[in-house]
Amino acid sequence: xxxxxxxxxxxxxxxxxxxxxxxxxxxxxxxxxxxxxxxxxxxxxxxxxxxxxxxxxxxxxxxxxxxxxxxxxxxxxxxxxxxxxxxxxxxxxxxxxxxxxxxxxxxxxxxxxxxxxxxxxxxxxxxxxxxxxxxxxxxxxxxxxxxxxxxxxxxxxxxxxxxxxxxxxxxxxxxxxxxxxxxxxxxxxxxxxxxxxxxxxxxxxxxxxxxxxxxxxxxxxxxxxxxxxxxxxxxxxxxxxxxxxxxxxxxxxxxxxxxxxxxxxxxxxxxxxxxxxxxxxxxxxxxxxxxxxxxxxxxxxxxxxxxxxxxxxxxxxxxxxxxxxxxxxxxxxxxxxxxxxxxxxxxxxxxxxxxxxxxxxx
Amino acid sequence: xxxxxxxxxxxxxxxxxxxxxxxxxxxxxxxxxxxxxxxxxxxxxxxxxxxxxxxxxxxxxxxxxxxxxxxxxxxxxxxxxxxxxxxxxxxxxxxxxxxxxxxxxxxxxxxxxxxxxxxxxxxxxxxxxxxxxxxxxxxxxxxxxxxxxxxxxxxxxxxxxxxxxxxxxxxxxxxxxxxxxxxxxxxxxxxxxxxxxxxxxxxxxxxxxxxxxxxxxxxxxxxxxxxxxxxxxxxxxxxxxxxxxxxxxxxxxxxxxxxxxxxxxxxxxxxxxxxxxxxxxxxxxxxxxxxxxxxxxxxxxxxxxxxxxxxxxxxxxxxxxxxxxxxxxxxxxxxxxxxxxxxxxxxxxxxxxxxxxxxxxxxxxxxxxxxxxxxxxxxxxxxxxxxxxxxxxxxxxxxxxxxxxxxxxxxxxxxxxxxxxxxxxxxxxxxxxxxxxxxxxxxxxxxxxxxxxxxxxxxxxxxxxxxxxxxxxxxxxxxxxxxxxxxxxxxxxxxxxxxxxxxxxxxxxxxxxxxxxxxxxxxxxxxxxxxxxxxxxxxxxxxxxxxxxxxxxxxxxx
Amino acid sequence: xxxxxxxxxxxxxxxxxxxxxxxxxxxxxxxxxxxxxxxxxxxxxxxxxxxxxxxxxxxxxxxxxxxxxxxxxxxxxxxxxxxxxxxxxxxxxxxxxxxxxxxxxxxxxxxxxxxxxxxxxxxxxxxxx
Lengths: 362, 558, 129
Fold this sequence. Notes:
By secondary structure, chain B is α+β, with helices and mostly antiparallel strands. Chain B is built from 14 helices and 23 strands.
């Protein structure tokens, strides 16, 4: 029934519908697949999920505009909703396993992966409370007090939400609810989930379901702890200082960049704002790498950004200039300096792509 | 310490000379003293020693008279270099705990000074068990207080009671309706929670304990009268002792604990009873806190459900999408609202309203509820926006306060492939329209805010959406979001227009998501007000063909 | 933009019959607007010798909807006390808000002439009813 060749064929058909913005065609693909006997979980995880991955990849390669990406995601989301509403209520699956909460970390607006997990768990017989994107931690905790689920699944895609994720994880555990973390933010192997003290990590929806089926114990009051207990390096305050001076760092870096690239003086305010946003991103990832004390978090962000920039014909050496300027501003922070040095080296080690005709930084 | 006697080094003859060397000091000593020769024969003992060892007489072998810990120690000292051990030996002799201090006497004899240490030992034992109990109480408190969920709290309380106080515990909660929630916890077994109709009078003392006031002490009851429901499944063997202890709540009864022990275990001591009472006090406090919290949270949730914006969907060939992000400040419930009232058939207009009440908190939220209800009642008059606003204004005017609302009314009807719009702003930010090609226009409707002035005026603007056009209604939470890469800057209308310019031809959901996402990024982790957005779109493809959430998949509805 | 801390909210009253001048500095919002109403009401208690109440917004840093609600309340009180309300030195954002919500005329109805009206050439979104 779950034939890989069939999945790929369906993926291609769904992708065409989604890329065309043709919602009807998208739902049609799924309806036909269902009527041909493909099960719902396979549709969610082997057809819709890979297509959504592709949406992100096509945007990164500058083959979709950001608006088209939103449109494609909206269509995928409606396809999931259509599947969720398809079967008659009640008759289908009364929750037999237990109750879980699925939510995105506050600030995380990529709700799609969490939605897929929530629907998968429902299909497997769990009673799921899906709280959606950007769930403030205090709302989450209030919800847990009210519903007392067997576990809470926290999703995050962007690593810069890891510090917020950490406080959410410890807060859930402090009230006796075990936490499973998932999503790209927690690293390809879930290493940041472990560093932040999550009880479990799941790489995808199936792993999440399997781990839940296995069951895991509630944290005891001994789990009560503070951030620095998990991450002793935070005691050096570098993370705190970088976060607190984020705005000043960006302003100063912007001014220094203008000195180095006089062409920037003729930038529109919109262009300047984009540059400031890029710098703010670098500082945010730097701070997050300081938080989890992991170089790769920073270097992989820089390489990814360089690829994105070059796909848009912006030379990646503007990133190097930004790093160089930031290094000058944070001379007193040895861990941060080391990160910037590693980041610079990683960017230098990339195969350079020729970028025609652009002399300006991001 | 007893008076120490130094052994005489000069004495080398083996003679019955202990008296000579130690004098009579040991004979009168208040503590028991034994003089034992190097071969383990009891040479002398004083009166105190005779009391401790009534059987002993001179000439006895020590190992036949005294416990082995003492005779073994003697063998070691007498046979060895004769040095006293660094720490005093301790052991029991005839139910007394004694410390044994050896000193060397003439001729290789050893004088054993035995100091009764029983009282200190008993006291230390008591302290140790008090420490253990206070540790248990501390652990109980932190575990119990970590949750505000009533069933979970009862589960924790019952299982800790079964672990530390008895072999099994049954927690009886005050009745909900006619049933009592019951939590059964056998020691080491799984906790079972059921809701059951029980006769509380079948357990003596239980009705009083459940009333909570006046305070009643924990009460012993005859195990033989215990009804079946009060014995957890898996509790094997006869019930030996049972105690019923109330869980005192804060003004509200929190329930009662029935503690059971089997016949093989001894009954509760007085100390254990006190301990059970202390535990019950903590469990009761935690349970009543959880119960109060749950009541409040339920009330809030019920109110919030009334006040939360509805999910939107396609109506009569026009897409509607909305999104609401409440202010982070938890207790400040929001003042933004929106609704879509579908026309009774495709030829009738659908009324969309989005607004914002001045102020924050529950007062503001309650006012949004009032506005939404009033507007619902005024739907039959929706043909005339000015009239609706006049009536709404009259309904909201209040001599005591000047809390006002600003809002936008949009009447939408699909005709000949276009969505016809009548838009009226009552003191609200003007709607923006993004055309399919990315042009952004402001809808120039203006009017007076609602609810503070005796007379309001407004004027309505008519326009139309072609395929791929979207009209965006939003609250100032979006444009007044503070943040950005340089910090503390307003998001502003210009940025909103720039975002919209990228959204030509997108479905309504995608526009809403894009706007909320960019605003969220702008904010970062900063504080924000409520942010509400509604998008009205004329779908791009002619076949308005997709999912109508109410009816399921794959049906064409246009 | 600067990194200076925001101006703290203050209300200063200056009573020189027949005029009461109330200087409002900082952010007039949900948390602070009660102070403004209280200050005006306190001074109006003995209004016999007052004819004009002038709110001076020269140092107003920001106003939100609660702040506007407070201005409407102040107006109710000044009307009841038979005094004329003037909104002086209105910053652009205040003016925009008053025009957007169509209350400028109401708030200053009996004031013949407001200083701020003369300096509003820079307001881009002129209100219309």
